C-alpha cells in the first residue's frame, strides 16, 4: 500500500487518537461498543504512522482484539449477542429523541445494518483459544 502524503498522515494519526478516545469510552460506558473503535483506530494509525499502530497493538486486551479481528477469528457468540442487544437497545431508547420521521427511519436502518453486519459478516468463534 502506498503511503499518503505527510499532511494526510497527520490527519490519519489525529483520527486514530479520536477513535482511541471513543474506544476508551466504549470500555467505560455500558452499551457503547469499544472494540470497533480500536479496530478503526489501528486502521487509521496504519495509514498515518506504523509506530502508533504498533503502540496500539501492544496494549493488553485491545491488541489481542485487533489481532483476532485481523486474523479473521471473529467474535465469540456471546459477544455477538451482547453487541446486537446493545444496538437494539440504543436504537430503541434514542428513537423517541429524533423528532422527524425520516430521521427515525434512517436511525432504525442504521441499527439494522449494524445487527446484520455483526450476524452475517463477522465470523463466530465458538471456542475461545
UniProtKB/TrEMBL annotation:
- A Pfam family: DUF454
The taxonomy runs: Bacteria, Thermotogati, Deinococcota, Deinococci, Deinococcales
Please give the InterPro entries that the UniProt record associates with this protein: DUF454
- Where are its TM segments located? 12-45, 77-95, 101-120
Instruction: Write down the superkingdom of origin.
Output: Bacteria
What is the name listed in the Swiss-Prot or TrEMBL entry for this protein? DUF454 domain-containing protein
Is Electron transport one of the keywords? no
Keywords carried by this UniProt record: Membrane, Transmembrane, Transmembrane helix
Q: Which PANTHER family match?
A: INNER MEMBRANE PROTEIN YBAN (PTHR35813:SF1)
Amino acid at each position: 500500500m502506498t503511503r499518503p502524503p505527510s499532511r494526510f498522515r497527520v490527519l490519519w494519526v489525529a483520527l486514530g487518537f479520536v477513535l482511541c478516545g471513543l474506544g476508551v469510552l466504549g470500555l467505560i460506558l455500558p452499551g457503547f461498543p469499544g472494540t470497533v473503535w480500536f479496530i478503526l483506530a489501528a486502521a487509521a494509525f496504519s495509514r498515518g504512522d506504523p509506530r502508533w499502530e504498533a503502540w496500539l497493538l501492544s496494549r493488553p486486551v485491545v491488541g489481542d482484539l485487533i489481532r483476532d479481528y485481523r486474523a479473521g477469528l471473529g467474535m465469540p457468540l456471546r459477544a455477538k449477542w451482547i453487541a446486537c442487544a446493545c444496538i437494539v437497545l440504543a436504537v430503541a431508547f434514542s428513537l423517541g429523541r429524533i423528532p422527524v420521521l425520516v430521521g427515525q427511519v434512517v436511525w432504525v436502518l442504521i441499527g439494522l445494518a449494524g445487527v446484520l453486519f455483526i450476524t452475517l459478516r463477522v465470523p463466530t468463534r465458538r471456542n475461545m483459544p
